[in-house]
Amino acid sequence: MKFKKGQSENGEEFSEAVNEEEVLEFNPNLSPEEQQEQVSSGDARYDELFAQYVRLQADFDNFRKRNSSTASVMYASGINDMLVEVLPVIDYLDMAIEAQKDEEQRKGIELVKNAFMDVITKRGVKEMGAVGEVFDPNMHEAVFKVQDEQNAGKIVDIVKKGYAKEDKILRHAMVVVAE
Fold first, then answer.
1. Measuring CA to CA, which residue among 111, 113, 72 is closest to residue 93?
2. What pLDDT, on a 0 to 100 scale, did the predictor assign at position 16?
3. What number is the average pLDDT over the span 102-126?
4. Is the pTM of this model over 0.70?
Protein backbone atom coordinates (compact mmCIF):
# COMPACT_ATOMS: atom_id res chain seq x y z
CA MET A 1 0.00 0.00 0.00
CA LYS A 2 1.30 3.43 -0.94
CA PHE A 3 0.25 6.85 0.24
CA LYS A 4 -0.48 9.51 -2.30
CA LYS A 5 0.22 13.06 -1.25
CA GLY A 6 -1.27 16.10 -2.88
CA GLN A 7 -3.03 19.41 -2.47
CA SER A 8 -6.76 19.96 -2.52
CA GLU A 9 -8.38 22.76 -4.49
CA ASN A 10 -8.34 25.04 -1.45
CA GLY A 11 -4.59 24.49 -0.93
CA GLU A 12 -4.70 22.03 1.98
CA GLU A 13 -2.30 19.12 1.85
CA PHE A 14 -3.72 15.62 2.04
CA SER A 15 -2.52 12.06 2.06
CA GLU A 16 -4.62 9.06 1.04
CA ALA A 17 -3.96 5.33 0.93
CA VAL A 18 -3.79 3.91 -2.58
CA ASN A 19 -3.50 0.28 -3.59
CA GLU A 20 -0.16 -0.24 -5.40
CA GLU A 21 -1.73 -1.92 -8.41
CA GLU A 22 -3.99 1.10 -8.95
CA VAL A 23 -1.12 3.61 -9.15
CA LEU A 24 -0.10 4.51 -12.68
CA GLU A 25 2.92 6.73 -12.61
CA PHE A 26 4.27 8.50 -15.66
CA ASN A 27 7.66 7.17 -16.68
CA PRO A 28 9.35 9.27 -19.42
CA ASN A 29 11.75 6.42 -20.21
CA LEU A 30 8.95 4.24 -21.63
CA SER A 31 8.50 3.91 -25.34
CA PRO A 32 5.25 5.21 -26.89
CA GLU A 33 4.00 1.62 -27.24
CA GLU A 34 4.71 0.91 -23.55
CA GLN A 35 3.01 4.17 -22.58
CA GLN A 36 -0.02 3.22 -24.70
CA GLU A 37 -0.06 -0.24 -23.06
CA GLN A 38 0.03 1.38 -19.62
CA VAL A 39 -2.87 3.69 -20.58
CA SER A 40 -4.80 0.72 -21.99
CA SER A 41 -4.32 -1.26 -18.78
CA GLY A 42 -5.53 1.79 -16.86
CA ASP A 43 -8.61 2.00 -19.12
CA ALA A 44 -9.28 -1.71 -18.61
CA ARG A 45 -8.96 -1.29 -14.83
CA TYR A 46 -11.35 1.68 -15.00
CA ASP A 47 -13.87 -0.36 -17.01
CA GLU A 48 -13.59 -3.22 -14.52
CA LEU A 49 -14.12 -0.92 -11.53
CA PHE A 50 -17.02 0.86 -13.24
CA ALA A 51 -18.73 -2.48 -13.97
CA GLN A 52 -18.22 -3.47 -10.34
CA TYR A 53 -19.73 -0.16 -9.24
CA VAL A 54 -22.81 -0.69 -11.46
CA ARG A 55 -23.31 -4.22 -10.07
CA LEU A 56 -23.00 -2.99 -6.48
CA GLN A 57 -25.49 -0.20 -7.17
CA ALA A 58 -27.97 -2.71 -8.63
CA ASP A 59 -27.44 -5.06 -5.67
CA PHE A 60 -28.09 -2.23 -3.24
CA ASP A 61 -31.27 -1.19 -5.08
CA ASN A 62 -32.52 -4.78 -4.94
CA PHE A 63 -31.65 -5.00 -1.24
CA ARG A 64 -33.51 -1.74 -0.52
CA LYS A 65 -36.62 -2.87 -2.44
CA ARG A 66 -36.60 -6.30 -0.79
CA ASN A 67 -36.36 -4.80 2.69
CA SER A 68 -39.04 -2.26 1.92
CA SER A 69 -41.50 -4.93 0.82
CA THR A 70 -40.56 -7.15 3.77
CA ALA A 71 -41.26 -4.31 6.18
CA SER A 72 -44.65 -3.70 4.58
CA VAL A 73 -45.58 -7.36 4.84
CA MET A 74 -44.47 -7.54 8.47
CA TYR A 75 -46.50 -4.42 9.34
CA ALA A 76 -49.63 -5.80 7.65
CA SER A 77 -49.13 -9.14 9.38
CA GLY A 78 -48.88 -7.41 12.76
CA ILE A 79 -52.10 -5.49 12.12
CA ASN A 80 -53.90 -8.69 11.10
CA ASP A 81 -52.65 -10.49 14.22
CA MET A 82 -53.97 -7.66 16.41
CA LEU A 83 -57.35 -7.74 14.65
CA VAL A 84 -57.66 -11.50 15.17
CA GLU A 85 -57.06 -10.94 18.91
CA VAL A 86 -59.91 -8.37 19.04
CA LEU A 87 -62.52 -10.62 17.38
CA PRO A 88 -63.31 -12.69 20.54
CA VAL A 89 -63.94 -9.44 22.43
CA ILE A 90 -66.59 -8.53 19.84
CA ASP A 91 -68.12 -12.02 20.26
CA TYR A 92 -68.31 -11.52 24.04
CA LEU A 93 -69.98 -8.15 23.54
CA ASP A 94 -72.57 -9.79 21.23
CA MET A 95 -73.24 -12.43 23.91
CA ALA A 96 -73.58 -9.71 26.57
CA ILE A 97 -76.05 -7.80 24.40
CA GLU A 98 -78.17 -10.93 23.89
CA ALA A 99 -78.11 -11.82 27.61
CA GLN A 100 -78.81 -8.31 28.92
CA LYS A 101 -82.39 -7.75 30.04
CA ASP A 102 -82.02 -4.08 31.08
CA GLU A 103 -82.50 -1.89 27.99
CA GLU A 104 -80.19 0.91 29.22
CA GLN A 105 -77.34 -1.49 29.90
CA ARG A 106 -77.92 -3.16 26.54
CA LYS A 107 -77.56 0.23 24.81
CA GLY A 108 -74.30 0.88 26.68
CA ILE A 109 -72.86 -2.46 25.63
CA GLU A 110 -73.98 -1.83 22.03
CA LEU A 111 -72.11 1.51 22.09
CA VAL A 112 -68.92 -0.26 23.19
CA LYS A 113 -69.39 -2.93 20.51
CA ASN A 114 -70.02 -0.28 17.84
CA ALA A 115 -66.82 1.50 18.87
CA PHE A 116 -64.87 -1.75 18.39
CA MET A 117 -66.58 -2.33 15.05
CA ASP A 118 -65.70 1.21 13.91
CA VAL A 119 -62.03 0.58 14.72
CA ILE A 120 -61.82 -2.69 12.80
CA THR A 121 -63.94 -1.35 9.91
CA LYS A 122 -61.46 1.51 9.48
CA ARG A 123 -58.77 -1.16 9.09
CA GLY A 124 -60.73 -2.76 6.23
CA VAL A 125 -62.34 -5.62 8.14
CA LYS A 126 -65.74 -6.83 6.96
CA GLU A 127 -68.15 -9.37 8.39
CA MET A 128 -68.65 -12.56 6.38
CA GLY A 129 -71.56 -14.92 6.25
CA ALA A 130 -75.22 -13.98 6.39
CA VAL A 131 -78.36 -16.05 6.70
CA GLY A 132 -79.60 -16.92 3.20
CA GLU A 133 -76.16 -16.77 1.56
CA VAL A 134 -74.94 -19.75 -0.42
CA PHE A 135 -72.51 -21.83 1.61
CA ASP A 136 -68.89 -21.40 0.44
CA PRO A 137 -66.38 -23.74 2.11
CA ASN A 138 -63.62 -21.23 1.40
CA MET A 139 -65.34 -18.61 3.56
CA HIS A 140 -67.58 -20.61 5.90
CA GLU A 141 -67.14 -23.50 8.26
CA ALA A 142 -70.20 -25.74 8.50
CA VAL A 143 -70.68 -26.84 12.11
CA PHE A 144 -74.20 -28.29 11.70
CA LYS A 145 -76.41 -29.46 8.87
CA VAL A 146 -80.19 -29.35 8.98
CA GLN A 147 -82.83 -30.75 6.66
CA ASP A 148 -84.48 -27.95 4.63
CA GLU A 149 -85.04 -28.66 0.94
CA GLN A 150 -86.19 -25.09 0.19
CA ASN A 151 -82.88 -23.60 1.37
CA ALA A 152 -80.56 -26.46 0.35
CA GLY A 153 -76.92 -25.32 0.19
CA LYS A 154 -77.68 -22.04 1.98
CA ILE A 155 -76.77 -20.74 5.41
CA VAL A 156 -79.74 -20.95 7.81
CA ASP A 157 -78.02 -19.79 11.01
CA ILE A 158 -74.72 -18.25 12.12
CA VAL A 159 -73.01 -19.73 15.17
CA LYS A 160 -70.00 -17.39 15.06
CA LYS A 161 -69.45 -14.50 12.67
CA GLY A 162 -66.58 -14.59 10.23
CA TYR A 163 -64.35 -11.66 9.34
CA ALA A 164 -62.12 -10.84 6.38
CA LYS A 165 -59.70 -8.07 5.58
CA GLU A 166 -59.29 -7.46 1.87
CA ASP A 167 -58.65 -10.96 0.42
CA LYS A 168 -57.40 -12.48 3.68
CA ILE A 169 -59.83 -14.34 5.92
CA LEU A 170 -59.17 -13.49 9.56
CA ARG A 171 -61.74 -16.00 10.84
CA HIS A 172 -64.12 -18.29 8.96
CA ALA A 173 -67.80 -17.92 9.76
CA MET A 174 -69.17 -20.91 11.69
CA VAL A 175 -72.56 -21.61 10.18
CA VAL A 176 -75.49 -24.01 10.04
CA VAL A 177 -76.18 -25.20 6.49
CA ALA A 178 -79.39 -26.59 5.02
CA GLU A 179 -79.28 -29.76 2.92
1. 113
2. 58
3. 93
4. no
Q: How far is CA 77 from CA 82, 163, 167, in A?
A: 9, 15, 13
The residue segments making up the domain with residue 175 are 125-179
141 assigned to some structural domain: yes
Judged against a pLDDT cut of 90, whether residue 175 lies above it is answered with yes
Q: Which amino acid is at 154?
A: K
Q: How many CB atoms lie within 10 A of CB 109?
A: 19
Q: Residue 23, class by beta-carbon neighbours within 10 Å (0-12 exposed, 13-18 middle, 19+ buried)?
A: exposed
CATH number at residue 163: 2.30.22.10
- Size of the chain, expressed as the number of residues it contains: 179
Total count of domains within the chain: 1
* pLDDT range class, residue 56, cuts 50, 70, 90: very high
Q: Quick one: what percent of the chain has pLDDT higher than 70?
A: 84
For 163, residues 6+ apart whose C-beta sits below 8 A from its C-beta are: 83, 87, 120, 125, 126, 127, 128, 169, 170, 171
Query: Does 131 reside within a domain?
Result: yes
